[in-house]
């Protein structure tokens, strides 16, 4: 058997042409790997057959939707993961899972290398290759578009010359990636940050300006994981899918961001994340109800570090694993119900309850009969502000001496 390379295969132009391009450039047999992470669209069997028609010696399809939701999206939700406080890491979360199956398939089929369709400008090249380096350092990573000069024009010509069964169009102006957590768009007229996004861009969300009658829902969490909507038990995948439809109807989760890429450039990105946005809003509200003050404050700092690590392709890093342990521990009491109103592009929390709640009505109320002893506050403030008082006294003395 000749040497083999396993290619992460999407079914699109670049990866379809990449099958023959890789074989021609490296002499290796190409195995196509298509991983279903809830991106929808074409039937995965059609994609598998296309890979074979384009010259792959084998084509493997993996249904990873449940695994993606349970093992990647739920840890991200526990971390309230949002890069630059806005982006819920749609692509950043799927890449380590795809890389895992690249490594698994390479080992099973005797391949000595893996490949992906990323350019040299983006983050995904780093995510794939850093993950492979952590999981299977003996494998070589190849990027046809980046390493073998496979440009779009060359890909179209190659597809025409070889009669490949794929759409050969120069007119698609956008680069699109999607999975069950959201949808991303870039390039084309979006590369000018002054150009507003047009309605035709969107697929997961309706226009929030077209205000629909409000929907009210209750999301139930157990230890930081959503387990039911309106009392109906559902799996994490089902909850994400159902919230994509419901929150998407109200235009929730549209994001337009100038993003700091890992390779050092800024990029204008459009995202649609209806379920992710809604769940993070609800989860943060429940944490505010159930987490002790200093733990809640500190966790917000850790969340930013966690999101940066995942964005930067370090899902399998030692630091990320350690942060996972901390975050999981914070979720021991994050159980309860959050009520939200969905309308006009917003998910608004309107009710919070939990048997693990740290909210004490008798302490919080301003009515007669409250149990908070206000007489203690004066002494507390005196002690709390004592360092500031001493420091201010010193500064005043120094100014007085300097003024003489």
Automatic annotation (TrEMBL):
UniProt domain Arginosuccinate synthase C-terminal: residue ranges: 174-390
GO cellular component, one term: cytoplasm
Record InterPro entries: Arginosuc_syn_C, Arginosuc_syn_N, Arginosuc_synth, Arginosuc_synth_CS, Arginosuc_synth_type_1_subfam, AS_cat/multimer_dom_body, Rossmann-like_a/b/a_fold
Keywords: Amino-acid biosynthesis, Arginine biosynthesis, ATP-binding, Cytoplasm, Ligase, Nucleotide-binding
Localization per Swiss-Prot or TrEMBL: Cytoplasm
GO biological process per UniProt: argininosuccinate metabolic process; L-arginine biosynthetic process; urea cycle
Family statement drawn from the similarity comment of this UniProt entry: Belongs to the argininosuccinate synthase family. Type 1 subfamily.
Name of protein: Argininosuccinate synthase
Origin species: Terrimesophilobacter mesophilus
Primary gene name: argG
């Amino acid at each position: 058997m000749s040497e083999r390379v396993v290619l992460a295969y999407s079914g699109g132009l670049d990866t379809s042409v990449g099958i023959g391009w890789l074989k021609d450039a490296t002499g290796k047999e190409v195995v196509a790997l298509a991983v279903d992470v809830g991106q929808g669209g074409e039937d995965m069997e059609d994609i598998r057959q296309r890979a074979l028609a384009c010259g792959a010696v084998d084509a493997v399809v993996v249904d990873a939707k449940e695994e993606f939701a349970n093992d990647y999206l739920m840890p991200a939700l526990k971390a309230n993961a949002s890069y630059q406080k806005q982006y819920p890491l749609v692509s950043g979360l799927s890449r380590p899972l795809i890389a895992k199956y690249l490594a698994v398939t390479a080992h099973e089929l005797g391949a000595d290398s893996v490949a992906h369709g990323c350019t040299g400008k983006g983050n995904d090249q780093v995510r794939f290759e850093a993950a492979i380096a952590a999981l299977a350092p003996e494998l070589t990573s190849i990027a046809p578009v980046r390493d073998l000069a496979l440009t779009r024009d060359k890909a179209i010509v190659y597809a025409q010359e070889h009669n490949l069964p794929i759409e050969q169009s120069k007119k698609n102006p956008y680069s699109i990636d999607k999975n069950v957590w959201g949808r991303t768009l870039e390039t084309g007229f979006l590369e000018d940050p002054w150009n507003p996004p047009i309605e035709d861009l969107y697929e997961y969300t309706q226009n929030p300006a077209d205000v629909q009658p409000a929907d009210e829902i209750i999301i139930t969490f157990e230890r930081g994981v959503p387990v039911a909507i309106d009392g109906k038990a559902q799996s994490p995948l089902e909850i994400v899918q159902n919230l994509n439809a419901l929150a998407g109807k109200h235009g929730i989760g549209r994001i337009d961001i100038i993003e700091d890429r890992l390779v050092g450039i800024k990029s204008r990105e459009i995202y649609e994340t209806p379920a992710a946005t809604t769940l993070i809003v609800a989860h943060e509200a429940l944490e505010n109800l159930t987490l002790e003050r200093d733990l809640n404050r500190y966790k917000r700092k850790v969340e930013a570090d966690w999101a940066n690590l995942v964005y930067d392709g370090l899902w399998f890093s030692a630091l990320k694993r350690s942060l996972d342990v901390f975050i999981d521990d914070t979720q021991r009491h994050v159980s309860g119900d959050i009520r939200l109103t969905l309308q006009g592009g917003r998910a608004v929390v309107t009710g919070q309850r939990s048997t693990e709640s740290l909210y004490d009505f008798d302490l919080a109320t301003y009515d007669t009969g409250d149990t908070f002893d206000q007489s203690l506050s004066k002494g507390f403030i005196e002690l709390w502000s004592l360092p500031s008082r001493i420091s201010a006294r010193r500064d005043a003395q120094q100014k007085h001496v300097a003024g003489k």
